[in-house]
TrEMBL record:
Cofactor (UniProt): Zn(2+)
Species of origin: Agromyces bauzanensis
Compartments, record wording: Cytoplasm
Protein known as: Alanine--tRNA ligase
Encoding gene (name): alaS
Limits of the Alanyl-transfer RNA synthetases family profile domain: 1-472
Length: 472
């Protein structure tokens, strides 16, 4: 089952059940407190919190997401991408727990021939918040799930709130069991890769306040209008349905991985470290492609910095695969071709995207070799002197002169068995920022002087009267 097919089945299923189909919002979220759209619910937050009345009682979407907090997991677990698509169904004061559970179960277990996703009910487990007896009863009643495949978990994993006073509620997550070849038979609570979380159902049920942590808050009362927010990982379902090992091997991602293998002359599936690198490359290239298509450009700040990190991490991974030259032309073209049927804009804007990618590659390739040799020398010296921490000024030099994102230096130092003096690095960064600010201020002064001319311009065109005035 192709990823596009799963996406379409999802949208058709929920559209046929009264949900308004809402197109994906940009990866660059409207919410200034969020760098990126991290979940399907983000564009619906005003409706879910009741700030704005929802224009429809039910909605569904396939939302593009970026999660930078998963970057370290990429390529190592089978299920974490920095970019992924979250299929969601939402109810704004309309159906609640029973409806959400019934829809999820129906879509998952209806045979493929009848438009469903064709999961075998025997392979599915659920977790519920430990005190949510109502959800447990519903899973038994609606889905016929036996007690053994319903696990009670605590607030750290199975409760949702924003960290602010407002709506909150228990979650129930649905897992696919990959079988004994992947681990012991303990259910999702064992938290290993045998059980893959595919779908999270959030039951927004209470108003809370006094929130001091994820697990510590006070329930004020039940919400008069309860909401449903769900998220199913499209890539996770795709990798299971496509019978491959992980989300980097699905139709939308694998072509990039294959390209990386081809360019390096190494074979995927023969060496664990190389495999992780190829998966990282496939993930990061796709994420970068999608970010640039949503208007993000590499820079040293904010969103652009995340993009820069992804791009530079990709270049380094290619180097670790033994390729020193440029590869972005081939890698990005492969990702474009794999993504363009779902997102035609990546082909439409490709000239611009490629220009940004190649520019970044050229800049970093110029300094990567020199920077790496500086790092290697510093690592050797640090070890020789018996210290366990790389000096902060080395990390700063690498950042400032060689364009190494600090995270990259941390990663490379760790590979060599060293930590980095992060405190000293941060101090140097702060000092540099202060200098830059002072600099900008003094420049501003000059600009302020020049702005006097702006006032004249604002009055309208000045007419030169010198000739006439002087002669009269
Ligand atoms: P996990 O515990 O596996 O990290 P999560 O609990 O953080 O997942 P949710 O926040 O519940 O994930 O997101 C809803 C769904 O989105 C998940 O059930 C999963 O299918 C999918 N998903 C979440 N994070 C990722 C990711 N980094 N890459 C791919 N799919 C993801
Ligand atoms: Mg997670
Ligand atoms: Mg989880
Ligand atoms: Mg979850």
């Amino acid at each position: 089952m192709q990823t596009a097919d799963i996406r379409q089945r999802w949208l058709d299923f929920f559209a046929a059940r009264g949900h308004t189909v809402v197109p994906s919002a940009s990866l660059v979220s409207d919410d200034p407190t969020l760098l990126f759209t991290v979940a399907g619910m983000v564009p619906f937050v005003p409706y879910l919190t009741g700030l704005v009345p929802a224009p429809y009682p039910r909605a569904t979407s396939v939302q593009k997401c970026i999660r930078t907090n998963d970057i370290e997991e990429v390529g190592k677990t089978p299920r974490h991408g920095t970019f992924f698509q979250m299929n969601g169904n939402f109810s704004f004061g309309d159906y609640f727990k029973e409806g959400a559970i019934a829809f999820a179960w129906e879509l998952l277990t209806t045979p493929e021939a009848d438009g469903g996703l064709g999961f075998d009910p025997q392979d599915l487990w659920v977790t519920v918040y430990k005190d949510d007896d109502e959800a447990i009863e519903l899973w038994k009643k609606v889905a016929g799930l036996p007690d053994e495949r319903i696990q009670r978990l605590d607030k750290d994993t199975n409760y949702w709130h924003t960290g602010q006073p407002g709506p909150a509620g228990p979650c129930s997550e649905i897992f696919f069991d990959r079988g004994p070849a992947y681990g012991v038979d303990g259910g999702p609570a064992t938290d290993d890769d045998r059980y893959v979380e595919i779908w999270n159902l959030v039951f927004m049920q209470y108003l809370i306040d006094d929130v001091t942590s994820k697990t510590d808050f006070r329930i004020v009362r039940e919400l008069p209008k309860k909401n449903i927010d769900t998220g199913m990982g499209l890539e996770r379902v795709a990798f299971i349905k496509q019978g491959v090992e992980n989300m980097y091997e699905i139709d939308q991602v694998r072509p990039v991985l294959d390209r990386a293998a081809e360019l390096s002359g190494r074979t995927y599936g023969t060496n664990h470290d190389d495999d992780v690198r190829m998966r990282v490359i496939a993930d990061h290239v796709r994420s970068s492609l999608m970010l640039m298509s949503d208007g993000v450009a590499p820079s040293n700040e904010g969103r652009g910095y995340i993009l820069r990190r992804l791009l530079r991490r990709t270049i380094r991974a290619m180097r670790l695969l033994g390729v020193d030259g440029a590869t972005f032309r081939e890698l990005f073209a492969a990702s474009r071709d794999a993504m363009k049927s779902a997102y035609p804009e990546v082909a439409h804007d490709y000239a611009h995207i490629e220009k940004l990618a190649l520019g970044e590659e050229e800049t970093f390739l110029r300094t990567l070799v020199a920077g790496t040799s500086i790092l290697d020398t510093a690592v050797a010296a640090t070890k020789q002197s018996g210290r366990e921490e790389l000096a902060g000024d080395t990390a700063f030099l690498l950042h400032d002169t060689y364009g190494f994102p600090i995270e990259l230096t941390l990663e490379m130092a760790e590979e060599a068995g060293l930590a980095v003096d992060r405190g000293a690095f941060d101090e140097l960064m702060t000092a540099q920022r202060t200098r830059a600010k002072a600099d900008a201020k003094s420049k501003k002064k000059v600009l302020a002087d020049l702005s006097v001319y702006g006032q004249f311009r604002a009055r309208g065109e000045t007419i030169f009267t010198g000739y006439t005035d002087l002669t009269t």
